[in-house]
Write a structure and sequence with these properties.
By secondary structure, the chain is of the alpha+beta class. It is built from 11 helices and 17 strands. It is 32% helix and 27% strand. The chain is globular, with a radius of gyration of 22 Å. The two termini are 24 Å apart. The relative contact order is 0.11.
Length: 398
């Protein structure tokens, strides 16, 4: 609590010192904070020095390092026992994932004299407090934005990342995860979700083009969607308002395809509409998949005048819903072979069958898609994955 109070007027750059000082009172030494980059490939130490607040800090890969294992598995992992500064055996160095709910922000390093359960719980508590402190500072910190980037970002991507909600959510027996690529040059793709009571609003948007104007179009579409939704509009009414807003701004020169959906988290009832987009995919029992059918109403902004139909589906506990854009399935290798829908779905099934969290599965999926396309996508690729567990709230957080 004293750490939280001390942080209220502290900028991001002062957090490492504050966290270390307060951790020392609980017997933790050499405490350091590492944040994950935008693509979840490296962990960079937050030192508080330099333009990115990371000068002089170590860097670890998410794949192939002990800190990376703690991040991937969301576990508290010790290094081998070693002699402490007082030359007594038993001193331990620990790595623990920094998470807010199910959103992974990085890892925390700390040395302790013992490894009993009370010490482990103190480490987890410190990591949780560190997550809250990072979240309270990152939205207005250019230093944080620099630290989590590994390459320059274009204007369209700058808009999209500032528009989207966090890439992870858990509540009322439901988990949501999302990824977007190319992270630094994304144009017209964007995902959205929000919670109102027991309703989870979901949306994936794909604006025409792959440039700054596509980013502007997607921003207008999401803003119009949120505006209508927050005034109590139904899915069809929301989609109609998005279309009218786009026509007011761009005539019919720009359009957006989308899936808009509402999931009642207490009952598992899904309602959704299709605005000219790829059909959602339902994975059940991790054994079979199906596309959820709904007549398309045409892209928003095209003014085709097609009727908007609302479809429904009753989820069963453990069902997973995949919303995605074409860049995922159309990524091609050097021989011109697409990543494809079947490979996409099979990857989710194999990696999210109890071995990895939903969010780690998505991280690995996007790495596989990028690798398939030789590290650079020609089109935006976005996935929004939702799992409904039917009220098993205690299983949401690893």
């Amino acid at each position: 609590m004293r750490l939280m109070q001390a942080s209220h007027t502290a900028p991001l750059e002062q957090l490492p010192k504050l966290i270390a000082e307060h951790a020392a009172t609980a017997g933790m030494r050499d405490v350091a904070v590492f944040v994950v980059d935008l693509r979840e490939t490296v962990l960079r130490r937050l030192t508080g020095r330099g333009p990115a607040a990371g000068d002089g800090g170590q860097e670890f890969t998410v794949a192939g390092s002990l800190p990376g294992q703690a991040y991937q598995r969301v576990e508290l992992l010790p290094e081998p026992e070693r002699d402490g500064p007082d030359d007594r055996p038993g001193g331990r160095r620990w790595w623990v994932a920094i998470t807010d709910g199910v959103e992974r922000l990085g890892v925390l390093r700390a040395d302790t004299a013992t490894g009993d359960e009370a010490t482990r719980q103190s480490l987890r508590d410190l990591a949780s407090m560190t997550a809250l402190l990072l979240l309270s500072k990152r939205s207005f910190s250019d230093s944080h934005a620099r630290l989590v980037r590994t390459e320059p970002m274009n204007v369209a991507a700058e808009m999209q990342w500032n528009l989207t909600p966090p890439p992870a959510f858990a509540g009322l027996g439901t988990t949501v995860g999302a990824v977007m690529e190319p992270a630094y040059q994304v144009g017209g793709d964007v995902f959205d979700y929000a919670v109102a009571g027991s309703t989870l609003h979901l949306g994936v948007f794909d604006a025409m083009g792959h440039d700054t104007t596509a980013g502007i179009t997607a921003n207008v579409a999401v803003a119009a969607c949120r505006n209508a939704r927050r005034q109590g509009a139904s899915l069809s009414e929301t989609s109609h308002q998005v279309e009218q807003t786009l026509i007011e701004q761009f005539a019919t020169s720009r359009y957006v395809t989308a899936i808009l959906a509402d999931l009642e988290m207490e009952t598992g009832r899904l309602t959704w509409i299709n605005r000219g987009h790829h059909l959602p995919i339902l994975i059940r029992d991790n054994r079979w998949t199906s596309e959820l059918a709904c007549p398309p109403a045409g892209p928003m902004g095209a003014d085709l005048g097609l009727p908007i139909r609302t479809a429904t589906e009753q989820f069963e506990p453990g069902d997973r819903l995949l919303l995605y854009t074409d860049g995922i399935v159309e990524a091609r290798d050097k021989q011109g072979r697409e990543f494809g829908r079947d490979r996409f779905v099979d990857f989710i099934r194999r990696h999210h069958s109890g071995r990895h969290t939903l969010h780690e599965t998505l991280r690995r999926l996007m790495a596989a898609v990028m690798d398939h396309h030789d590290g650079a996508l020609d089109d935006d690729a976005t996935v929004l994955l939702t799992e409904w567990r039917g009220g098993h709230q205690h299983t949401l957080i690893p």
